[in-house]
Amino acid sequence: MTRTVHRLTLAVLFSFLALPLAAQHMVAFGPSGTAEAAQGYLALPSTPGKHPAVIVIQEWWGLNPWLKQQADTLAAQGYVALAPDLYHGKVATTPQQAMALTRAFDRTQGLDELNAAYTYLHGRKDVEANRIGALGWCFGGGLTWSLAAMQPGLRGVAIFYGPLPAAPDRPAYTAKLRVPVLGSFGGADTSIPAAGVQQFAAALQSAGRSVDIKIYPGMPHAFAHVTTPAGKAAYADAWARTLRFLHQRLAD
């Protein structure tokens, strides 16, 4: 098992190093009607021309180096990647700080900014306007669920252990959802129990929605950061599934 994980890790590392480096910088964008434009971290492919695009949605920590690295990785794969700064310059380094930022977060404003990120990407000359997706982890995964129902122009969204829509809201949510969803969840996640994820996914599928959910046995919440061999293997599989999904939905 350990040798397999090492080989997989090295293969991913070498394939990433072989890719051209992307250009990165902060940009300002909508939403319109606000006193101050939202900002985000933009990572661009090194090749010219039009590209598919991905909105990269932060964990509860904020727009930290890890999140920027995910945008860079997607840009190296050929996507225009935009990570909105939903905390407006604030970044948490402890769970206590992260909890305070999430409690202070204006969800309505945040979703407005995510929709503005879609509009911004849609209008860029280097973006294929009909090939935009979204990807979020944890706090950002919950926002990705919401954005998927609000923005039918998205071609697909990938969600890593994002909190599910509240049970009373699910019938209305199901009616609005038209975007294909890929989900990765931990089987030992106590905050988002696997049974509830399976039940919700089954309800969406029964309603004819395109939903592909995989639950990783023994994995806790936020298993992207689990450093055990099993955790690394689970997240490597989840990330590979995500890249395949994005390619099928945005690049094919």
Write the layout of secondary structure elements.
Blueprint: H1 2-17, E1 23-29, E2 38-44, E3 51-57, H2 65-76, E4 80-84, H3 95-104, H4 107-123, E5 127-137, H5 139-150, E6 156-160, H6 170-176, E7 181-186, H7 194-206, E8 211-216, H8 229-251
Helix pairs in contact: 1-8, 4-5
Could you walk me through the main structural features you see in this protein, from its secondary elements to its overall organization?
The structure is a single chain. 39% of the residues are buried. This protein is an alpha/beta fold and 252 residues long. It has eight helices and eight strands, in the order H-E-E-E-H-E-H-H-E-H-E-H-E-H-E-H. Helix 7 links the parallel strand 7 (181-186) and strand 8 (211-216). The chain has an eight-stranded mixed sheet with strand order 1-2-4-3-5-6-7-8, sandwiched between helices. It has one domain (22-251): 3-Layer(aba) Sandwich (Rossmann fold). The chain is 44% helix and 21% strand.
